[in-house]
User: What shape does this take?
Amino acid sequence: MYSVGTLSPFQSPTVKLQRLFESHEIEVFAKLDLLQLSGSTKERTANSLIESLLKAGTLEPGGMIVESTSGNLGIALARQSAVRGIRFVAVVDENANRSAIDIMRAYGAVIDVVTTPADGNKLAARRRRVQHLLTEHPGAVTTNQYGSPDNPDAHFRTTMPEFMEATDGRLDMLFVATSTTGTLLGCQRYLRQHHQETTLVAVDAVGSVLFGGESGPRRFPGLGAGIVPELALQADPDVVCQIEEIDMVRGCRKLARREGILAGASTGAIVTAIEQLLPQVQAGSRIGFLVHDSGVPYL
Ligand SMILES: Cc1ncc(COP(=O)(O)O)c(C=O)c1O
Assistant: This one.
């Protein structure tokens, strides 16, 4: 499959929300990455990671990719691998969304489920399993979403230019959900390189250790991390919001019922984070956020 016409297959629409915070004098823009072909922002990341490996010759056409993923990157990698005739093994934990696994299988991926270790650190266990599989299959590669510069680069090259173009180059605040922090880093690099004064807000989960938080149980995939990934060392947001699970759900419901956008937990966390910061937001501010994925698999 390849793109025809002027639109890139990764371009997503941006909408201006009218009812989410209607009593506040702010403008709110949402970038609908839930409309990506694989259903999330990770479509961009997967494309960037695979393209880079193919260009470097580390991954051969017809080769094999092994990646640890909580769902969305796996779905995107599975889809992109199917298009390119690459074999894909998704290493997932027991928390992984059932429908995410079914979707990856539908694209032809092999699913490798890692049981939760005694210390409860699922992310570390998945990474150990990836290393094991790479040793077992010479020539196989991992896309290393936790450390590869091609992860943030996807958002530096595509997400941010699209978002800024859609909002006439002026956003006072940008809210991004964090796990590998790749999306946040790409946005951060773009904003700083373009001397934007946009306040960058990282939205994390309570129980995530990403920004000095205390480790605790997290039931929703896609938001937060149990260990600090390599990329996160470069993350330098202006504000960090840690959100409780119940408030992620509340945020999702509010977005669905006021704007008709049924988004996943990380986007629900963003809606709550905006709400929490509203008392400090100046009237007339322009706020942007990413709708990272769809809420349907979470139902
Ligand atoms: C739904 C969702 N939101 C946000 C994120 C965070 O993205 P990143 O890994 O770039 O920090 C992810 C990552 O998997 C995700 O799946």
Observations:
- The chain has two domains: 14-37+149-298, 42-136.
